[in-house]
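User: Could you check the structure of this?
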Amino acid sequence: MAVRDEVYVAACSDYEEKRVEECIRRMIQDQGGAEVFLKKGKNVVIKPNLLMARAPEAATTTHPAVVKAVCRVFQEQGARVTIADSPGGVYNKTALSKVYRFTGMERVSQETGAFLNWDFSSRKRRFQGVKQRNFDIIAPIAQARGFAYIGGHPMASKEKGGFDNADAALFEGACYILTPTPSTPAAVVDGMKELAAQLGCARLSFASPEQMKELLGAENVVVR
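Assistant: Sure, the predicted structure tokens are below.
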């Protein structure tokens, strides 16, 4: 059964956890069951509209009882569930920690074992929109849809650019630096190792994104 492109609305008298979970289970079952949503894999990301650090009673964000129920349903099917969103304003660990705490997501994570997202990187995606076509998709959403990302830079360059100055042996003997995140799949890292070897790089090193910025900054100063 294919997932239907419909909005499902069901009434629930309050946010008492048992009633909310019964309602969520009924809604998902009417869509064909949780397994329908897991056909492409068992990575599930819940985006609970974490606009800002407000208590659930303010009704700004999705109530934690709803998020908790959804976590339970998919975890029963063996899914790895991550709670993720990019709130308005600053998007870093300090700001997101406050949002998770105020909105009740921190407690949901503790009670269900669902993961809270701490990866602040994003991926560029292009869609056929009317006014906007290029979007930044936060890492956990991209990963749940099968995209993987790893930053890197071969430490080789020339003082002159342009096609006429291209050099097929530019990377031979060079060092290739990779900046994987904690969520980067091992298979992606292995693939980049193979690519670096095919380019002729003699050594592969690893660094954090912050270290990489410092290294490239120093390199630019030397070149100039």
